[in-house]
Amino acid sequence: AQSVTQLGSHVSVSEGALVLLRCNYSSSVPPYLFWYVQYPNQGLQLLLKYTSAATLVKGINGFEAEFKKSETSFHLTKPSAHMSDAAEYFCAVSDPGGYQKVTFGIGTKLQVIP
Amino acid sequence: ETGVTQTPRHLVMGMTNKKSLKCEQHLGHNAMYWYKQSAKKPLELMFVYSLEERVENNSVPSRFSPECPNSSHLFLHLHTLQPEDSALYLCASSQDLAGGYNEQFFGPGTRLTVL
After folding, report:
1. Which of A29, A68, A72, A102 could hold A94 in an S-S bridge, CB 3.0 to 4.6 Å?
2. Partner residue opposite B108 with nearest CB, options A34, A43, A46
3. Half-sphere exposure of B21 toward its Cβ, with a 13 Å CA cutoff?
């Protein structure tokens, strides 16, 4: 069965600092991987996804993530945090093949300090 | 309206009430989902529909009853709920179920409080 582990339920960074949100996955086959963001009082919105093309994936709002098979990781980064990045971030995994069943991580709440 | 809409946004109900949550997607998608989001827990998939047919019922108690009359609308009928059912209920849609690579588009959710 597939699973996702997000290290750190809360992460605080200063405005302008590097953002690094960690995600490790477990899957029996090379998976598809997603990062979603949830702003207060809103649903989840896709930031980026990995579907076995380039291992470095660029998303919206300056975020990117790198798929590292050897480390079973898909960490999310942004070079310079902005106040508007404060939100909750979810890593998710699905197995390729016939059925779209996605498993979500527990989420990491990002706080940006002015 | 665009994207995925949900009504109501907030709902307070007693344990003996019957209420319904409504979801509508304006994206022409064929698959729709109900999720439960509780604090400090991963998103819990409840139900999945593909072309109005239920394909997944993730061991959800019978006090939750989904309905998908067409590919644009999804309902969650609630009755005799428990306080632990208080959560944010999210609806999502995707192009279809094939392949595992389709992103899901989420509505803003219904914040449910059971007294």
Report:
1. A102
2. A43
3. 30
Q: What is the pLDDT along chain A (114 residues), one digit of tens a residue?
A: 788 999 989 999 999 999 999 999 987 777 899 999 999 988 999 999 998 778 899 999 999 999 999 999 999 999 999 999 999 999 999 877 656 678 899 999 999 999
B103 touches chain A (CB under 8 A): yes
B84, HSE (Cβ side, Cα atoms, 13 Å): 3
Distance, CA of B56 to CA of A40 (rounded, Å): 29
Residue A89's identity, in one-letter code, is: Y
CA distance B73 to B92: 11
Helix (H, G, I), strand (E, B) or coil at B84: helix
Question: Which residues on neighbouring strands pair with residue A57, listed in sequence order?
Answer: A65
Which residue does chain A place closest to B9, by CA atoms? A41
CB A47 within 8 A of CB A36: yes
Q: CA A56, CA A66: separation in Å to the nearest integer?
A: 4
CB contact under 8 A, B42 and A107: yes
d(CA B20, CA A68): 43
**What are the C-alpha distances in Å from A95 to residues A52, A61, B31, B45, B95?**
11, 26, 17, 16, 17
